[in-house]
Amino acid sequence: MYYQGKRRGEEGFAAVIDFLLANARLVLGIGGAAVLGIATLAVKRLIERAGRTPDDEKPDQKTIDSWEELSLVSSSPKLLRKGIEGVVMKQIAAAAKAQKAELSKPSSTTAEKPQVEVKRIQLCVSLHERLKQYYESHVALSLEEVSRAQQQALDICTEIQGFLHTKHPDMPLEEMHLGGSLLDDLQVVAADHACLLVPLQIEDMLWKLIPGEETILGKPQFWMVRRVNLEYFPRGRSFWDRFMVGGYLSSKTVVEVLNKSVMETMNWPILSNMLECVVRPVMGSQELKLEIKNGNSQLFISILPTIHLNDTVLTAQLEFTGNFDNIWYHSLYTAETTKLAELDEEDHVRRNTIGQRLLWLIDSSRPLLR
């Protein structure tokens, strides 16, 4: 019974509140309704004024707003009703605008993502096109220019090899051949340099290669070639014993002998007339280098004595080894190009791309990066 009475009391109290809210004018009277409306407008003005920044509101505008608030007190119920309806309409319009803005935000973010992706794709495409354009205009060589330079180098290689066999028939040399970037299609900007490799034929039972880490210098690129088994094969059994200094094969002595035999002995004017180009040695250089001029083109050929033993290639390059007589330079060029060719055959692709030639251009133009 107590529970049922309580429920009836709550329902009666709620009914009274609903009746007062629904019939405010009848219950409170016209004056009470006016006071309620004025209080509502005053609260709204205070809220709007609190949301403004100090700079947005001028002193004159503050005065006008104050006078308008005072005039509301003496306004008629009809004007008061219109003001209340205006406030409600403004709030409804503001809520509708806010809802539209919230609905439009996800669509704008989703629309921005494809635009960003398109810009990234355009950036990548433009970078690739710029590199390709630079390669074709500044780096790439024509097939005619490369083939002409290769043919000139091969002709000179044949003449020097024949001259050495005639001058030193007992010198054990393997077949001379061209090497370097010109032969491997890595030449860039201009086909202006090549290498003529002169392989020395040494006996593996009489000579031993000493890695750079085990030498007095302790540098991996500087190797030595030591004479071994002297107790069984005394000095003189090998042709290269005459180039030995302190028990090691001297790279400097080999270069000096080839300089006297080739650079200072060959008849370069006759060779120039026969090849229809100007061929002459480069004077004042530590390396054995030839200069070939044919019209506006210029080609340099470096003559490199090499030792190829146990998959290791050593070259006599005094510009790298300096004043050390018994030091040979460990070249990794042949091993790296061979490995690259093997990878190309396995994958059926060609890694000799634009990027690789651009890197070769940077390396050739910046000696400090070598």
Outline the secondary-structure elements.
Elements: H1 2-22, H2 24-51, H3 59-73, H4 77-139, H5 143-167, E1 177-179, E2 193-199, E3 207-210, E4 222-227, E5 244-245, E6 248-249, H6 251-263, H7 268-275, E7 278-281, E8 288-294, E9 297-309, E10 312-315, H8 318-321, E11 328-330, H9 333-347, H10 354-365
Parallel strand pairs: 2-9
Antiparallel strand pairs: 1-2, 3-4, 4-11, 5-6, 7-8, 8-9, 9-10, 10-11
Helix pairs in contact: 2-4, 4-10
Keywords: Membrane, Transmembrane, Transmembrane helix
GO biological process, one term: positive regulation of mitochondrial fission
Subcellular location: Membrane
Overview of the molecule:
Pfam families: MID51-like_C (PF21297). Keywords: Membrane, Transmembrane, Transmembrane helix. Residues 145-336 form the Mitochondrial dynamics protein MID51-like C-terminal domain. The chain has 370 residues and is an alpha+beta fold. The protein has two domains: 2-75, no CATH class; 143-369, Beta Polymerase, domain 2, CATH 3.30.460.90. The chain has ten helices and eleven strands. Helix 4 (77-139) crosses helix 10 (354-365). The longest helix is centred in the N-terminal third of the chain and has 63 residues, at 77-139.
Question: What's a quick, concise take on this entry?
Answer:
This protein is α+β, with helices and mostly antiparallel strands and 370 residues long.
Number of domains: 2
**CATH-level-2 architecture of the largest domain:** 2-Layer Sandwich
CATH fold-level assignment of the largest domain: Beta Polymerase, domain 2
Low-confidence segments: 1-10, 72-76, 107-111
Strand content: 5-15%
- Return the string of H and E elements: HHHHHEEEEEEHHEEEEHEHH
User: What helical percentage do the residues reach?
Assistant: 55-70%
Instruction: Tally the beta strands.
Output: 11
Radius of gyration equals 47 Å
Structure annotation, total helices: 10
So what's the overall shape?
elongated
What structural class should be given to the helix and strand makeup?
alpha+beta
Distance between the termini: 104 Å
Major sheet: size, sense and barrel closure? 9 strands, mixed
